[in-house]
Amino acid sequence: MSKQADQPTPYGAQGEDYALWRAREAVAQAEKLLASQAATMAYHEGRATSLIGWVCADLLAVAGMLGSHPTWLWAAGSLGVVCPSVVSGYYLYQVFQPKKWSVTGIHPEWLMQDWPQPTERTTLEGIANRYIGEVERNEQTLKRTFSIVRKAWIWFLLIPVMGLTWLGLFAALVFWIK
Question: Which region, left, alpha or beta, applies to residue 118 given φ > 0 means left and ψ of -120 to 50 means alpha?
Answer without folding.
Answer: beta
